[in-house]
Design brief:
With 276 residues, this protein is of the alpha/beta class. It is built from twelve helices and eight strands. A hairpin with a 2-residue loop joins β1 and β2. The two termini are 25 Å apart. 49% of the residues are buried.
Length: 276
């Protein structure tokens, strides 16, 4: 059973869900776009049942208490800083970090900059940023898949997404996400300024986004039917992890792994944590 709570941190107040004993091994989970922390509801509950203290929070822009309006407030240092601020507020000196989509990118950046804070890393869907950058430069398939990132920088994106009962926003989930999650996501992103804040992840310039090799024990989980992230970067990610690493391809699964394949993903996470 998960509980809803708020985390008062140096970055501001984050909405969150949590489960497990207060003194359990801490696991922090980061969601992506366009989701909220409840994307991790199944994993948080299962981890809690296994004795971990699992917490997923609505990240910058999604939490009403941390919703800056300008894209320059969504840089790498801001997003990584929020992870550490939440961990610090919870008095977690070291923790396991799990991230999907944008949460995956933040997790990679955090592991690169603050390896001393992490026990393990689990990246879901999102490849290592350097592997993805190389794919953008060399792979026409990945460039085509990533074109939406430029398109969504357009100032009319919010109106397009929310028109006709948020029809375009709803279509992004490809019929793969349970309706109750979609309704919660749309409700949150329909709040004043929320969708613009979420789109600031795409609109921000990140000159400090370079990421080297990752030293912490890492697993990378990727669905073979991911519409946004192709196989080139997925298979190249192993070149960017110097610590223990394993790659898990989920055949027939798309981008929304936490909701599409919750039991498989949960088992992978728990096995990874138990191994390290």
């Amino acid at each position: 059973m998960t509980k809803h709570l708020q985390i008062q941190s140096a970055s501001g107040t984050f909405d969150a869900i949590a489960a497990g004993p207060a003194d359990g091994r801490p696991v922090l989970l980061l969601h992506g776009f366009p989701q909220t922390a409840i994307a991790w509801e199944n994993q948080v509950a299962a981890l809690g049942d296994q004795g971990f203290r699992a917490l997923a929070f609505d990240t910058r822009g999604y939490s009403p208490g941390v919703r800056p309006t300008h894209p320059d407030k969504y840089g790498v240092s801001d997003l990584v800083g929020d992870v550490l601020a939440v961990a610090d507020a919870l008095a977690w000196d070291r923790f396991d970090l799990v991230g999907h989509d944008w949460g995956g990118a933040i997790a990679w950046w955090t592991a690169a900059r603050h390896a001393e804070r992490l026990r393990t890393l689990t990246a879901v869907s999102t490849p290592h940023p350097a592997a993805l950058g190389e794919a953008h430069r060399t792979d026409e398939d990945q460039r085509r898949r990533s074109q939406y990132q430029q398109d969504w920088r357009s100032p009319d994106t919010e109106a397009r997404f929310l028109a006709d009962g948020a029809a375009v926003l709803r279509s992004l989930y490809q019929g793969k996400v349970p309706d109750r999650y979609i309704e919660a996501y749309v409700r949150r992103l329909s709040e004043a300024g929320a969708l613009s804040a979420a789109l600031n992840y795409y609109r921000a310039d990140r000159p400090d986004a370079a990421v080297g090799k990752i030293q912490v024990p890492t697993i990378y989980v990727w669905g073979t039917e991911d519409i946004a992230l192709g196989s080139t970067a997925a298979h190249a990610t192993e070149n960017w992890v110097s610590g223990p690493y394993s790659f898990h391809e989920l055949q027939g699964i798309g981008h929304w792994v936490p909701e599409e394949s919750p039991e498989v993903l949960t088992n992978l996470i728990i096995n990874h944590l138990n191994e390290h």
